[in-house]
Amino acid sequence: MQQQDDAPARGRLTIRTLAMPSDTNPSGDIFGGWVLSQMDLAAGICAGQRAQCRVVTVALDGMSFIRPVKVGDILGVYTEVCRVGRSSLDIHVESWVRRGRIGKREKVTEAVFKFVALDDEGKPTKIPESNSLPPYVESEM
What are the tens digits of pLDDT across the range 85-111? Predict the structure, then answer.
């Protein structure tokens, strides 16, 4: 697992936000659930674009909290499709921070989120082949 400043993040930047005091735990660090929520939002955006329909999170594999997130850090969440099945797909997610908005860049979390594509009735549906996706999807994957 690469964690140094000069290591590239895996995937594309999907969400960037600022860690605020209202998101802290009793220890004063940013609550892990807030970070997890940002990761799920980003993974859902990525999965929905690839599936071209509604998707739901069904599992989370290998969640690693590597370093704490602090108030004032800019959190960047990067996503990459790592597996596409018939109706499910896996999204690799990494979160990186810029300490104090301008400081050192560090990787803080990593996980794989699993999604299922759903039709209008809420039943699993086939994910389209990559060659049938709109051009904007391929340019953002």
Answer: 999 999 999 999 999 778 889 999 999
Residue 2: its pLDDT value, please? 44
d(CA 91, CA 85): 12
For residues 5 and 105, what is the distance between their CA atoms, to the nearest angstrom? 5
> How many whole angstroms separate alpha carbon 124 and alpha carbon 23?
34
Q: How far is CA 14 from the centre of its chain?
A: 7
Higher pLDDT: 137 or 48? It is: 48
Cβ-based neighbours of 58, under 8 Å, separated by 6 or more: 88, 114, 115, 116
Angle among Cα 55, 93, 113 to the nearest 5 degrees reads: 40
> CA distances (Å), 32 to each of 27, 38, 78, 91, 135, in order?
11, 10, 17, 19, 35
